[in-house]
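Contributing: when you submit paired examples, paste them exactly as shown. First protein:
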Amino acid sequence: MKGKLNLYGLSLIFFATLLLAFTSCADKAQDEFVLELDLFGAQVEVPPATKSFPNVNQKLWPYFESFERAGKERGLNFNLAEENISGDIDFIEEGEYWGSCTTSADGSMSIIIDNEFWNASNDGYKELIIFHELAHCYLGKEHNDEQFSNGVCKSIMRSSNAHCLDNYTVNTRSYYLNELFGL
């Protein structure tokens, strides 16, 4: 127990130092927002699904529906259940990837979310990765590694090679979804 408390204390000191480092710049860009560290987990909550999606793992349904809802709130009406998109949670061998989107010659699309990532993540991180992969498959979005001067990613479409910090929280979600859906 003592080791856990010490590790917890060190983690808090580390994150507090990080927070100070990223928020203490005097000359911030006007369009920049402050990094919010999600120290204790799920800030973004995804409601249960009210509809089904054929060929999609049932655990992914709430996120597919949330993606549709986010698009609709921004003037885009689409029904992923009618699209040729499959989705599953499985082991991804490629190391640093938490999700993947593949499009076949016949136009069918497949999203895979890494099993280890799924088991270790809260709703906010799951939504970020599923939205990222749906944006590749359904919206045709490419990676965007732009970042604010404080190192925060400007888009959830960052690549695994990006050297920016994810900042997808309940308070920044609207900004990131507006950027994702082209607003």
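Second protein:
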Amino acid sequence: MNIRALELLIRWLLALFFGWSAWQKLVDLSAFTESVGNFQFEWEVSWGGELRNFFDPPTDVVIAYLVPWFELVAAAALLVPFSRDAASAVLADMLIVFNLALAYAWHRGITDLTCGCHGASDTPTNFPVKIALNFGLMALIGAAFLLRRQHQWLVRKIGGPRIPEP
């Protein structure tokens, strides 16, 4: 398998995974909103003259309604040549934020958290496995990026034929 084919395969697999994940959240936004609230973030702000948790309603609803759309658009953008680097950056950044949220909940001892990462579920999140999976996804995003850069370097160095962007 050549470099371009491997990079294309990784990008398609990532796009399918993140597209599926976004769709699972969009199918039941109320369950995903509940999952966002389950993280129990503590960040108190003065809101309307009173001290409130920033992640209480309506912020949890806004987050829950925006995250799947960012994920879906970024998944589709992975397949468009001029936007794949930006899409990779958005998805990697989202994974970093998700890992920080998972680490926060794990640190707080929340044992019955269902993260909602792939839609509604009754199974509590296995923090080490979920964090490791997210790091694996970040590694795949990085691999696709580096494979594309390596192909571009080889074309410039050897002067061989440039394979058109898929």
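If you have annotations for the second protein, write them as plain sentences, like these:
The chain has one domain: 3-158.
The helical segments are 3-27, 29-38, 59-77, 84-107, 127-158.
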